[in-house]
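haha ok so turns out i had the wrong file open the whole time. this is the CORRECT one, sorry everyone. sequence first:
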Amino acid sequence: MTVQIFMGDSDTFEQQQQSIRRSTTDCLDIKAQKTMQAERWLIVGAGGFGREVYSWTLGHLHSTAADFPVQFLDDNPECLDRFPELRSMWLERISTYSPRPGDRLLMAIADPGAKLTAGATLISRGATFASYIHPTAVLAHDFKIGIGCIICPLSVICCNVRIGDFVSMNVGALAGHDSVVHDGCTLSPHSNVAGQVDLERGVFLGCQTVILPKIRIGEFARIGAGSTVISHVRPHTTMMGVPAKRVSWSKNQDAADHKAA
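then structure:
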């Protein structure tokens, strides 16, 4: 499997490229490029995050399709109607899209469950995802990253961080040393993950959340904006506040708690 990463033009590109090359694992051939060529570039999701990704990648995506070098996949055909300059860029529904050779996809859905479902569905049809790292991101020399990731402007990835597939780190998000960010996680703007944190699959961190060192956040948990997490969080729960307290949880977690008792 190849993880294709493109990073845009930057004075520090060569240094970042060396960092990416050092991040190669036995099973991943990571290729960093200033620009990436494809027959068609497709952004999966045309909501706010999808339009942000489009804006950040302007000038970086090169396509042989002269009329529409970049298009959107979204299950809502009216998703771009409020944006006249983008309206014609909607291609088709995610649910009906069939990949063709030369297509390259960027995952731009923020909701963890929705993006994991869409990613799995599209990969099962043969789609090829690239990962995008903005040129202003700060990268350690030894991090690892999966497919379908979006690393936004001013994000920071510290040493020995492991990032799974379909992870998004929005503007100014930080992943601290020795942390693991599993598949499908979303780190909203200026969220701060301290060292040795384990974010399990599908975790959502709201804006300006703080996760203290060595904390484990269970799968599909959601941390509200501005919260500070000081203890482990069970799966499928919603936490808010300083310090963060549980405000809701799923019926599945209720059943698990009852069984454990």
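The chain has two domains: 35-129, 132-253.
again sry for the mixup
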